Amino acid sequence: MQNEILTPLSPEDLQQLVQPANKPIFLVGMMGAGKTTLGRQLARYLKRDFYDLDQELIERCGVPVATIFDIEGEAGFRKRETMELDICSRRPATVLATGGGAVLAEANQNMLSQRGTVVYLRANVNELYRRLERDKTRPLLQTANPQQRIEELLRQREPIYEALADVIFETGSAPVHTVIKQLLSVLKEQEVI
Description:
Catalyzes the specific phosphorylation of the 3-hydroxyl group of shikimic acid using ATP as a cosubstrate. Keywords: Amino-acid biosynthesis, Aromatic amino acid biosynthesis, ATP-binding, Cytoplasm, Kinase, Magnesium, Metal-binding, Nucleotide-binding, Transferase. ATP binds at residues 32-37, 138. 54% of the residues lie in helices and 11% in strands. By secondary structure, the chain is an alpha/beta fold. The longest helix has 24 residues, at 65-88. It is globular and about 50 Å long.
């Protein structure tokens, strides 16, 4: 399952997704990078539907992500994540915030790169830690040294984010309304929107 897309898109579905007005925007990046916060705002500005992959999983499973991790482990969670990404990435004219580790599976990388525009929301380790230091809902950060764990995850994932990205955007520490204006400007400049 790692190397293939679960259910291939029909040529008609693929053609609909690649139309500029319909092409989904997929936000990737580390937890705490702003995928959900900026994604909601971006969708509002673009008059698109917004989806959060983790939230879609929670609704489908009826339990929090942490509970899925507890019961099925990370491998079980990642399998469910791939199935949900297959569903969500088929929706035209959307903004989708993926989970930070959604890019790890090759099947997910294929879906993201083939079905939409991938925007990597980049933030440095210190900024990510500042945003996440009080968040107790992140299973991967329940360690003695969460900042070190963020650094390890970023080192592992950043090459994948960069390789997948059609657009790389630094989220920085400015207020959300300022960041979203900058993001919209970059997306227009790069003819994504």
